[in-house]
From TrEMBL:
<keyword id="KW-0645">Protease</keyword>
<protein>
    <submittedName>
        <fullName>M6 family metalloprotease domain-containing protein</fullName>
    </submittedName>
</protein>
<feature type="compositionally biased region" description="Low complexity">
    <location>
        <begin position="20"/>
        <end position="37"/>
    </location>
</feature>
<feature type="signal peptide">
    <location>
        <begin position="1"/>
        <end position="24"/>
    </location>
</feature>
<keyword id="KW-0378">Hydrolase</keyword>
<dbReference type="GO" id="GO:0008237">
    <property type="term" value="F:metallopeptidase activity"/>
</dbReference>
<keyword id="KW-0732">Signal</keyword>
<dbReference type="InterPro" id="IPR008757">
    <property type="entry name" value="Peptidase_M6-like_domain"/>
</dbReference>
<keyword id="KW-0482">Metalloprotease</keyword>
<feature type="region of interest" description="Disordered">
    <location>
        <begin position="20"/>
        <end position="49"/>
    </location>
</feature>
């Protein structure tokens, strides 16, 4: 069975603090007028009335990411290990396997974050051979990291740490990547196993006591024009992002489609939702408009693929729910936007990772979509954006697309009822 996206085993943390809104954040100034952000301006994590509250101690769409996750701005350092098995020895060199992901993963984050995330990977460029055959570790989709067991990810990780003991100082790294030899286990087209253990410690520590956590294991090879994106997806869990696709085992259409790689990281390249960029600290306060007062507001949105300008309008519906508005057009990371326009989504922090915390509205319900040639994406949502003259009404919020200007920006009017 072909799977669309990657599983995550989210380890929850018990320490949860409430978000502390900044008092002078322009993002909460709903009537601040047009503002133009710039990559030169520091991004900032959400605050103000549009920064939705946390109701779970794990990954969610909330503004606040609990302690224990990795930072997602500035210089973020990853250590990358390569692992194979005595019965599944790697046929490629460590450099070749590493080259499937780097520098592409770092480049992706640099572009998507408008230069605000400087991702640096340090590889240990040798195959670390496990002591037992692949099957002895009993790893399947959904296998947890269980520090009480002598198999699974705990056993693999113990052997990795033993192999590099004295040569790698884990304290220097925010993320750990483990690239398994693609010869081990089934092809990704049959069983998706890549997984991240994010947030709280896994129960395993290096000899010096440094917790082994925020670790992503990448199995097999994905297809498409940028298969490295599986690691961008997995690392994003360590930054606090949830899965948008339904993880319950029942095959359901992806609720956001190809508009975010936490929903679909297969197939052609795609970027993150503007909401996720805000959560990760990649937008300057002036690039986000929080429409928390009743009335009609006109805004000019620049597409996600363009670094400057207003990227996101948010209409809060409650402490945990909001409507988001952004513009999408073809760009360096958005390869197959076939109906450029204004994307409207609903976000819920009280809906768990893997249960559909974000839903994208479809401007053309019932259509087959405009990108129908790739089975890895939800074609029906490929033409989801609203175009000039169209209007979207959801949860008491109306979004009208007024048109585009010569610079490719989208004029919208957002009306919120009393
Ligand atoms: Zn995931």
């Amino acid at each position: 069975m072909k799977a669309l996206a990657i599983a995550v085993m989210v380890i929850t943390t018990l320490a949860l603090t409430a978000p502390a809104p900044s008092q002078a954040d322009p993002a909460d100034a709903g009537d601040a007028g047009e503002a133009t952000g710039s990559p030169a301006t520091d991004g900032r994590r959400p605050s103000g009335p549009c920064a939705l509250a946390s109701v779970t101690p794990g990954v969610s769409e909330a503004a606040h990411t609990p302690a224990g996750y990795a930072r997602s701005t500035g210089t973020v350092r990853a250590i990358t290990f390569l692992v194979d098995f005595p019965d599944a020895p790697a046929r490629s060199t460590p450099q070749e396997r590493y080259g499937e992901f780097f520098p592409a993963v770092a480049d992706f984050y640099r572009t998507s974050s408008y230069g605000r995330l400087d991702y640096r990977s340090t590889p240990v460029l040798r195959w670390i051979r496990m002591s037992r055959p692949y099957a002895a570790y009993r790893i399947e989709r959904g296998t947890p990291f269980d520090a009480s067991r002598d198999d699974g990810y705990h056993a693999l990780s113990k052997e990795i740490l033993a192999a590099v003991d004295g040569t790698v100082d884990l304290r220097r790294y925010d993320l750990v990547n483990v690239l398994l030899a693609p010869e081990a286990g089934p092809p990704a087209t049959e069983d998706v196993r890549s997984v991240t253990f994010a947030g709280a410690p896994t129960g395993l520590a290096a000899a010096d006591g440094t917790p082994f956590k925020n670790v992503s294991f990448i199995w097999s090879r994905q297809t498409g024009d940028s298969p490295f994106r599986v690691l961008n997806h997995e690392n994003a869990h360590s930054f606090g992002l949830p899965d948008l696709y339904f993880t319950g085992g029942v095959r359901q259409k992806t609720p956001v489609g190809h508009w975010d790689l936490m929903d679909e990281d297969w197939g052609p390249s795609n970027d993150f939702l503007a909401w996720h960029k805000w959560k990760l600290g990649w937008l300057a306060p002036g690039q986000v408009h929080c429409l928390n007062a009743p009335g009609r507001r006109e805004l000019t949105l620049t597409p996600t693929s363009v670094p400057d300008g207003t990227k996101l309008a948010v209409v809060p519906l409650s402490a945990t729910r909001a409507v988001t508005v952004e513009a999408r057009a073809p760009g360096p990371l958005d390869h197959v936007v076939c109906r450029p326009g204004v994307l409207v989504s609903t976000v819920a922090t009280d809906v768990a990772s893997g249960a559909g915390p974000v839903r994208t509205l479809d401007a053309t319900p019932g259509s087959h979509g405009c990108h129908t040639s790739d089975p890895n994406l939800n074609a029906g949502l490929s033409d989801a954006p609203y175009v000039a003259g169209e209007r979207c009404a959801v949860a008491g919020v109306t979004v009208e697309v007024l048109g585009t200007d010569a610079a490719g920006r989208w004029r919208v009017a957002v009306t919120r009822g009393a």
